[in-house]
Amino acid sequence: MFIDSLSELWVWQLMGRLHPIIVHFPIGVLVVAFFLELFTLGNKRSELRAGIRWLVYIGAGTSLVAVLFGLMLAYGSNYSESTLNLHRWTGIATAVAALSAAGLLYRADLSRRKKDLNIYRSILGLTVLLLTFAGHFGASLTHGEGFISDVLPWNHEVVSEGEFTELLTEVKEHSEMGSVAPQHLNELNVGVRRIFANSCYRCHASDEMEGGLALDSEAAVMAGGDGGPIITPGEPESSELMKRLLLPAGHDDVMPQKGRALFPDEIELIQTWIELGAHWSDEEVLTFREAEMALSKPELPHSGNEFENPVDRFVDIYFKEQGISWQEPVNDTLFVRRVYLDVIGLLPEPGELKEFLSDTSANKRDQLIESLLNREHDYAQHSLSFWNDLLRNAYTGTGFITGGRKQITEWLYDALENNKPYNQMVSELLSPGEKSEGFIRGIQWRGDVNASQTTEMQAAQNLSQSLMGVNLKCASCHNSFVSNWTLKDAYSLAAVFSDTSLAIERCEEPTGDFAEPGFLYSELGEVDKNLPTDDRLEQLADIVTQEENGRLYRTITNRHWQRLMGKGLVEPVDEMDTKPWNQELLDWLAADFIDHNYNQKYLLSLILRSRTYQLPTVGLSAEEARAPSDEYVFKGPLRKRLTAEQFADALTRLAVPVYSSVAYDPFDTRIAEASWIWFDARENGRPAFAPPGQYYLRHTFDLSNDKIINEARLLISADERFELIINGESTVGGHDWREVQNVDVTDYLTTGKNLLAVKAEKRGATAEPAGVLLNMEITYSDGTKSEVRSNTDWKINNQDPDPDWALSDFDDSDWYSVRSFGSSLDNKYWGRLLDFSHESTEDRLQFVRASLVENDDFQKALGRPPREIVITKRDSEPTLLQALELTNGEMVNDVLSRGADRWIREYGEDPEELIRQIYLRALSRPPTGQEARIIGKLLGQKPNNEAVQDLLWAVTMKPEFQMIY
Hints:
The protein is built from 34 helices and 20 strands. It is of the alpha+beta class. Helix 15 (376-391) crosses helix 16 (409-417) and helix 30 packs across helix 31. Residues 187-278 form the Cytochrome c domain.
């Protein structure tokens, strides 16, 4: 009986081990069938149908066989249970989908109906998708979960070959002399624990105990696994752990089975540790590097008279150590373009560039930097992109529909515009008022969420990542494999934000423990668990923002360095425990930042004024760009691509507004209450859109004889052309509803009766929405104000009127009442009219910065994130989607087409000047002689829209336009 059972098990295991051979057959067959099916779309290549039919039938059958053999292999296996379950069920789902696809194909062949064929195709596509996931989980089982990602250069293991050689040499020398110091025993223990963390935790940690073995605590290591103890202190040759480590590669029992094999010095370190008694330190031993909390200001290096800027003094020492020679700073033209884009996010105007180039002052660069930092609105609007990414602040998207998310835009804009001290900003984020509470409030996701995505845990993750440069996402689910942070640490910080007791869950399984509120770094202060939540948050804010928290101020200093230089002093910027490429420079800048009252503009100015910032830019390979800071050699600022927002604003300056002021009000505080008004057309007694044509609008109003008019300004837009007449005098016209005209009309008004008249035209061939939007604000000498708006009090006519129709005493009693299409706040066709209270200059009313508008497909394609997670560094690698958007995107084509019309209106009679002005505005330089000749031939003497649009597109596609050099 025993022999029969053994024989049956042997056959079962043998059949199971055929699974890896069999499973590749349906994979290949079904994938080929799917791609052949794509070739038949649109009733093409019907000759492929017979072959596809057999491929699908064979693939479905063999997928079922592969599943059966896979279940045999899984029986009694020692695979990771979680990954095995994922592979098992995705494999079964694949077989079910494949059999369904085969059945649907058979039905489609019988019915000859296109609907049945399309259903079959959809299921076949689903089959291939499931097949992909099943294959991925299968590879994770056989090769380890990091089989693909481990080879990527940015995922190299923390431990490197030969790292422990020096320690082993010292230990051996002391051992030969008769004793090993406690310090060396501790260092051995730390090294072994680092090896366990990097190579073993994925299978042998408290939440993934394959074989019943965990290696993340002293008790677990000494207890061993299901097979008994793995360590015999003092006897490495008898220790099961060493036997497993020394087995040849490919052996069934060799360890580790997943990931890379241990380096020789790692194996020797573990052997030495066991030989010396497997000491486990009672002290808190950090498995991974942690940066010092304390922040002291290093002494400035001496450099004679060569360098005045502190940044340059530290970099000079670094360059000498690295054998790098200083290069000459970039020329004035490159500098102007670089600093404009870095500080305010806009291209310099040709006049601004000319003024700077003609300036002979020795300190003109410093003066320009300060003048740009003092452009509060431009600085704030550009900086919003960085801070919105960092603080996860969006204007729309996940959570807003359900009310489970809140903006902090108004608070943030005010903080940036007024250069609020950084410690105050952080304090108001952590102990918030109504306007800043969205940061810790996070996103209340719909339905049930896992424990690591509760609002309290989001607050902990957001605080730690964005403000402290610590990533708690792994520790929110289990003890981290890549840092010293534990599940308890993450839950303690989350508990600070919780109104109720917070139960600790490990990988969605309750542990039975509850978290005590506390900050990550207890040496900075304790959080009183007995305080109400609001008081705890106030206490947390005081702890985090104190000067002793060097972590906070190093992190923001590093982020600003990365913004300007392209790569941080510490990289990745969210892993501040990584060794900086220049520790003294980072510490000095952070300490100096504190000394200057946490003034971010001061910090930016200091870096911008350095010769280091003004060096020629450097291009790095993808591997070099991702290298951590301790492996990176700084040679100068990195060449950067324009962000989505910078590119959109650059297009606006070059062509026409990408986002017009009439379409968006960035402040959302006091919206002008004017309405879009137009002819009240009717069809069968019901409202309809008026046909194209010319329309005439009038509105009379009285101004008091007792008040003196100090100033009157008027905003007007019309879809799509208009002429404004005030008291019989023509004032301003427009031809694009997106361009709001801002006009000083003080001299056109009089006391008593006044008339606003608009001659408007809607072009096209069909009836569609049209309208006029007007808002006039009158300021009197006594400081009082009044407004005149477009509303239902206006009159309109669709017939050619009397020549005197634009005079105030004209009788319009037989004219029609206008129809309102909604105010500038709530209409669905055009958007909002900007309010007077925030903008005064005409230029600022012409367009809205891209950082202020809701995310759209254009900006998404260019890399603007949805901000559902903290984003601290955008991907700068170009993508196919970006290429398609810039080549054929509707928005780009529309902007360039309208821009071409604008350039033709301004310079159509002088093609040479047109070319020169486009180059100056786009590239901050005139065209070369060769460029001017080639483009001149293409444009001819009478440039048309298509030719100018091609020129604008060609210029915007140049790296010189899209990059910051």
